[in-house]
Amino acid sequence: MSIEQIKKDAISQQQHLSAIVADAIKQAQARVDSVEVSINQSTGISVSTREGDTENVEFNSDGALGITVYQNQRKGSASTSDLSPQAISQTVDMAINIMQYTSPDSCSGLGDREFMAFDIPDLDLFHPSDLNVDNAIEQAKQTELTALTESSLISCDGGYFNSRYGVYVYGNSLGMLQGYCASSHSLSCSVIAEQNGQMERNYAYTSSREINELQSPVWVGKQAAEKAVAHLGAKQIPTMQVPVLFCSEVAVGLIRHLVAAISGGSIYRKSSFLLDSVGKAIFPAWLTILEDPYILRGVGSSPFDSEGTRTVKRNIIEQGILQTYLLSNYSAKKLGLKSTGHAGGIHNWLVSPSQTDADFTAMLRKLDKGVVITSLMGQGVNNVTGDYSRGATGFWVENGKIQYPINEITVAGNLKEIYQNIVAIGNDIETRSNIQCGSILIEKMSIAGK
């Protein structure tokens, strides 16, 4: 099927799904105080290869309707993947029946009408591929072939290609009914490097909303091989306290812990190490985190959140100071505040580098002597206390240059102190995530080794 035909079909599908949402709202509206309905329909292919053979080819076309009703502060929710008129009517009935058994909650209900996204911008999120299976298989195989060619120490654990597009529609009884189409594509390769009985697994990937903006299969295979081979011969280092540089891929995770800590659910449950922190400095004064939901083709771009609240461009951190919590309708009401449009997640966080010319090489020079972290494992983060302890691998650095790979270490600290002790952030920005951040240099952390 041609791309133009796919685009026409998706637009037609969005109109059809909008009519279904409107009908479901109409059916429920006469029987309850308020109602909201959403549909997410996706179509795509997924291909995997292993050692040059096609291992798996999947075509997916699925979706579901979810409906939530509110009456006398009670809430009922139901969903269905059957979008026939009869199934929709049964789902409406089920949501209303479930509502009868729930306890009243003064914080349940729709958000404020003034914050709803009645008009939305076109964020250029829809760039579907033609879902050509032969081309997908060829790209996945090419990543493996490149990795094998790169080094005789490499064996391949798989090449993977994914391409999909979706239609999302949301409506509620306040009169909002909006939807949009979006696409995503990715290509990845996983490899194993082996030498003298030591094995190291690694991978590389590329992703984009526009398939023509993906890195080439050659780039993916080469990156995967180079990363795996670079970690061969890894050593343990003694327990110590040293400066630590998180490469951009893992630095994103440090900021993601901030997301969890300032999310409304963590705040109203008092299960966050950043309680009562709005208006307080939690980062160095030079650091700003801008959230921009309206970046064209952005990974995290969206005109509204999962509750229909319009998204807003704003500073989350401004000159080191926390400006807002991340609130859904429910958490906002629990805290006596207003929704910030964060039901369902965040939208393109842009973390400011400390200087515009601080590439990874410059960050190594700034580190001088210490540890570079390239991968993390385990879930050793306590959101209540901020205590941080995770297994890690990476490299030992002296005189601003990588000396040798290291493994079997644990990196530990407390996130409050880690955030305050950020020395620099590089301009080697990780762009494949809804958090865009360069490598992060921490003044000092505890390393547990041999």
Give me the number of helical elements. Answer: 9
Q: In the CATH classification, which architecture of the largest domain applies?
A: 2-Layer Sandwich
How many individual β-strands?
A: 17
**In what range is the share of β-strand residues?**
35-45%
Class computed from helices, strands and strand pairing: alpha+beta
Walkthrough of the structure:
The protein has 450 residues and is α+β, with helices and mostly antiparallel strands. It folds into two domains: 3-230, PmbA/TldD fold (2-Layer Sandwich); 240-448, no CATH class. The protein contains nine helices and 17 strands. The chain has helices spanning 3-29, 85-99, 133-150, 217-230, 248-262, 264-268, 329-335, 360-367, 415-420; strands at residues 34-50, 53-71, 74-80, 154-172, 177-195, 198-208, 240-246, 289-291, 314-318, 321-322, 349-351, 370-377, 387-398, 401-414, 422-425, 435-436, 440-448. Strands 3-2-1-4-5-6 form a six-stranded antiparallel beta sheet. Helix 1 (3-29) packs across helix 2 and helix 3 (133-150) runs parallel beside helix 4 (217-230). It starts with a helix and ends with a strand. The model has no long low-confidence stretch (mean pLDDT 96). One of its GO terms (molecular function) is metallopeptidase activity. Residues 127-232 form the Metalloprotease TldD/E central domain.
